[in-house]
Amino acid sequence: MHIALTGATGFLGSRLLVQFLRRGAEVTVLARPRPRGAGERLATVLAASGAPGSLLDRLHRRVHVVEADMSLPRLGLSPVHFQELADRADAVWHCAGDIRLNADLAGLRAVNVHGIRQMLAFTAAGRRVPRFHHVSTAFVAGARREGTAYEHELTDAHGFENAYEQSKYEAELLVHAWARQQHRPAVIFRPSILVGDRPPHPDVPGHPLQYIGEVARSAREAAAAGGLELPPGERPLVRIAGRADGHLNLLPVDWAAEAMVRLAERCPGTDVSTFHVVHPRDTPMAVLVRLLERLFPVRLELQDADVAVSDATELERTADFYPGFTPYLRHRRRFDDTAARRLLGPLPPPPDVDLPYLVAGTDPAAHDAARPRTSR
User: Fold this and answer.
1) pLDDT tens-digit series, residues 205-228
2) Is 370 among the domain residues?
3) In terms of domains, do 117 and 206 share one?
4) Does 339 fall in a domain?
């Protein structure tokens, strides 16, 4: 089995690569050109993500790294090289993407929508008729904050919480249109919010909660530099819009990668198959509030409605710590994963995403004391 993979240096893509290598596959990694070579970046990311040394030793033998630009026709490659790579693939996995929740739609479309067009063209060109696998997000369900989102649904009727969700919705539409036009099967994975219990690493792309942790550390450092440190034990109250009875689906990234590969192995090769890759137990909003209170020196109070501007304190007016993410504090939505569970079989359940798990994955200082690692 020869797999073409994008996004291999990313938070999820590096774990997918480990799963492929464990199964004996050969992999062509299509990576963006950067000053630091893609092969060097890949080795660094895998080592920092906890990949075993035995797999790292196989990189040069089983992984072929190609610098490719998904903003360009033929990925910026010569016609001959493009066709050689396409003809080599038995399966194509598109995991690359811009996951910034606070980015503008035009910038996100340039990567998440235009990039998938290039990868669909790459897949269509392959003489082995490879199956296309696309990593989307469960949050294409958009701004529907309650009820149940189902795997077969794909609609913009509820609007979107951020431009990232919309760009991934538009990308899924392209996969469906391509599959109809080409009479080809495809697989769409919709993971929930992926997290890990390894501390942030400067060479490894992180997850959204790690970004919030970085914002908190920067704010603390800036306050200290400006002589604005709070007296010991003093934590001002910050009211933000959210549901105290809400919950979010957070999923350990290692489990997600294994589940996706297992689903691909068992999925029938017809039509477009869509799977929610989610945790069987949501994380209560109270846990996220406790995490945020640990990261920021404040007391948080969730309110059903937005705090009136006239009533807001100066701190509350600037308290949107991650635009694009804060609307999720209002969510009570659940994701149905019937199709995924039917195919997965007896896969051990993922670890609970509780406060110790989240602290270990967002606060480097607390990692060693938080709990033993559960990531593989």
Assistant:
1) 888 888 887 777 776 666 566 555
2) no
3) no
4) no
